[in-house]
Amino acid sequence: MSLMKVVSAKLAAEIDQELMGPQVGFTLQQLMELAGFSVAQGIYREFPPNKSSANKNVLIIAGPGNNGGDGLVCARHLKLFGYHPVVYYPKRGKKNEFYKQLVDQLNFFKVPVLPEDIGPDKWLDYAKPESTLCIVDAIFGFSFKPPMREPFESIIDQLYELQNKIPVVSVDVPSGWDVDEGPLSDMSLNPAMLVSLTVPKPASTHLKPSASHYVGGRFIPPEFAKKFKFDTFEYKSTDQVLKL
Amino acid sequence: MSLMKVVSAKLAAEIDQELMGPQVGFTLQQLMELAGFSVAQGIYREFPPNKSSANKNVLIIAGPGNNGGDGLVCARHLKLFGYHPVVYYPKRGKKNEFYKQLVDQLNFFKVPVLPEDIGPDKWLDYAKPESTLCIVDAIFGFSFKPPMREPFESIIDQLYELQNKIPVVSVDVPSGWDVDEGPLSDMSLNPAMLVSLTVPKPASTHLKPSASHYVGGRFIPPEFAKKFKFDTFEYKSTDQVLKL
Question: ipTM score here?
């Protein structure tokens, strides 16, 4: 039986649950730190900060759940790598005290976090083609189910308009896409780069041919991957991302 | 006023407390993941796994506190990097459920964790010059205060005997050293490599001239370092360690 290259939304949820279950014992904080770091490393590969250029701004748009948390961690590492990240986090995760701590950490690193209610016109001030290297779409991940709620519907519409001027980097799944089926319309976001976490989801097969596709989240032993009928990836040395 | 190159045990404790305090909001799990990863990356730099050789074994000796926890995380990443780590963890941290989870994670990755009561003769079976690339001393860190308790006194005596046959890599502080004063006797451990975490402690100035000294734990903004009167380090690209 050949191994799959992708896992469905349903399997991705099972993998996540098992990784954080009593047997494996990973915590959300650990996995989020490694996932967010891997996205930041992928961005460094694809959009290295050019020391001679002022163009080091990265706007991170964080959603209300774990995909957003990955984005918050990514922003902190980008700052350490020499970028100028700015975070837009309009619906803050209230379920888990840890999300608040991730924001505290960003304050500690002097990463600007825009006011929650800044609104759709104001955040665009932080997405200028002449100074913004890329926009990180950390809005929705593998557990997204329609319908899309505001303010994210407007934000994603605006990202669609921007995507040919500023490259969009999606975390795990392009936001608004069906995790298993891909883009829902011709007006769906189509990112320049995707960092799939753990293993790509079926949606990733719908990326445009010019898009860069990375996998990150290097925390799976081969036996576990086989159990879920996918193969682990041949990461190099101590790398936390691999370009596919 | 010039900035210091080292911080005392007392300042290191204050830095740690502040990083995990209410303002900064880091959690132990995050910092331990990044610290353990940095040690593993340092080992990869200094002792790359040679694909053509069987010599990929690394013995990690973990102490009862946070230094031991860093070692447990390091072991997991070493496994992902292609090494064959084995962990000896004779006094397991009981204060924090998370230490147990770190052991569960090692089981998940099929990293052997020797029985707690294996005794001083048996663990030596896992430290053979012909097959062991290095031994990681993750026994005591910056909060160590004498007197040394068993079984660690015996273990460190045995490490002293072994250190010229198998290189020893110490995490943060060579175990048994006074954090501020350095080695306590001529029979003190003298590691081949030290990975200082966040910022070196005064003991590091007593390393033998042939020793490699790295700094890891890349999670400090420059303003915070200045407040504690040290300078941040010029890490390259996405590196989590820097050779000093």
Answer: 0.95
